[in-house]
Amino acid sequence: MPSHARAAAREAEANPAFRIAARAGYAANGILHLLIGGLVIAVGLGAAEDSDQTGAFRAVAAVPLGALALWALAAGLVALGAWHLLQAFAPRGLPVPRRVARIAVEAPQGIVFLAIGLVSASVALGARPHAEQAAEDVSQGVLTLAVGGFVLGTVGVAVAAVGVGFVWMGVRRSFRTKVRIPEGPGGLALTALGVVGFLAKGVALVIVGVLLVVAAVRVEPDTAGGLDGAVSALVALPAGPVLACVVGTGFLAYGAFTIFRAKYARLDA
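The structure corresponding to this sequence follows.
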């Protein structure tokens, strides 16, 4: 990254207004996970709903003033994505290995939040996307390539690895390095929300990764999918509806934790 671009990134990172926008982005992400958690529980109870981000956005669009709410979510998520990208490239004084590691962790998060924010904006404008079908279409296109199976399998392993990372952060409670945990019962409650939420999101991502690997091995793009496919696979298991409700409750916990993170996030961590 050129020095003048990095200097501009550092200036933006230090801007109080941008930091407020980043905190608003955490709140938006928390609200999104609350919606997803509710949809996952609904699917576990037998409803025919899309339990992913696009399903959540379509649910918001159906309520009064839904378009306005979607624009607010889009603005927050885009701001959060931009914040993660700044975290990837703005810090100074880091040795090369730590800088590379920071880019590898923060940049993908930034890109994902930017993409989800744009999806929210597209739904506000009237689009009605289905992430599950889009994932299957992309997988089908990848599998037509000579090395498509390897590429899709690699993506699946990477997604599963991210899921394992979430589980590890929940078990180790290492997310506390990113959040100022208050003293007393409030801090204990926030930590509990983080543990449950990170575990649940990690499990969901591991299932998504496994589905992608299975699709690559069997050359069956219909097997691949996103969060909605992962929930469907979970429901199909013995005691699956109960497990889906447990995962949905975990997403509710993660959403609540992320909303509190809007206030307590260590933006310099």
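The chain has one domain: 3-264.
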